[in-house]
UniProtKB/TrEMBL annotation:
Name listed for the protein in its UniProt record: Carbohydrate kinase PfkB domain-containing protein
Species in which this protein is naturally found: Botrytis porri
Signal peptide: none
Alphabetical UniProt keywords: ATP-binding, Carbohydrate metabolism, Kinase, Magnesium, Metal-binding, Nucleotide-binding, Potassium, Transferase
GO terms under biological process: D-ribose metabolic process
């Protein structure tokens, strides 16, 4: 049987995480509790999740335990963060051959401040090489990987025009697409028929349907109205995650 291929197109970031008792005020210097770095980016996280869920033992070779192969398409800069990100994906047995290193560009970085008591976080994202993924990059069938993927996975941490171009190309090739619209922005109605599976949380659903976030956070909110709205626009499957509410 031919292998099933999951191709993820999206962001690759290095997370710089500082744990602090509280966020300093303007002009204040505060000693942090701890600092750590690690691989991140919504695209990379999707790829790792797919790879780990595709085999009984996440560390085992896919050829021995799974007929699913995961490929990552993205970009890193020619700095110290790029090679470590690629290495971390390889550790999860992800095909990284289509990750491009962009000269004179930085790798995407997320600076994350986490308050130790409340757990509240603040994130400052520098897209770097992620924004080198342009619509012109995805104009031929081979740009979505060869052979064509069984499933294409997307998010919105690369430029929106690029995502829309990928959706158009995938639709023309009858490739199923799973989209997690995060960070959330309004999508044109023309994009929805190209989305096979739409997975989003409460806030993302509110933004995409122009509803107040406070409205969807109401325990009595009727979610069927939201899912029906997406289905009426052409999405095949809609999943809304509700956090602690299930």
């Amino acid at each position: 049987m031919s292998p099933r291929i999951i191709t993820v197109i999206g962001s690759l970031n290095t997370d710089l995480v500082t744990l602090t008792p509280r966020v300093p005020t303007g002009g204040e210097t505060l000693t942090a509790t701890s600092f750590s770095t690690g691989p991140g980016g919504k695209g990379a996280n999707q790829a790792v999740a797919c790879a780990r869920l595709s085999r009984p033992n996440p560390a085992s070779a896919p050829s021995h335990t799974s007929d699913v192969f995961v490929k990552m398409i993205g970009a890193v800069g020619d700095d110290e963060f790029g090679p470590s990100l690629i290495s971390s994906l390889k550790e999860s047995l992800i095909d990284t051959a289509s990750i491009e290193t962009i000269p004179d560009q930085s790798t995407g970085v997320a600076v994350i401040l986490v308050e130790s008591d409340s757990g509240e976080n603040r994130i400052l994202l520098s897209p770097g090489a992620n924004h080198s993924l342009l619509p012109s990059t995805f104009t031929t069938p081979s740009s979505l990987s060869t052979p064509h993927p069984t499933l294409l996975v997307l998010q919105l941490e690369i430029p929106l025009p690029t995502v829309l171009q990928i959706l158009t190309l995938a639709s023309s090739l009858s490739i199923p697409v799973l989209l997690n619209p995060a960070p959330a922005v309004k999508l044109p109605d023309s994009a929805y028929p190209s989305i096979t599976h739409l997975i989003l949380n409460e806030t993302e659903a509110a933004i995409l349907t122009s509803r107040p976030v406070s409205a969807v956070e109401d325990p009595a909110f009727e979610w069927r109205a939201v899912t029906n709205e997406f289905l009426s626009k052409g999405v095949k499957t809609v999943i809304v995650t509700l956090g602690s509410k299930g």
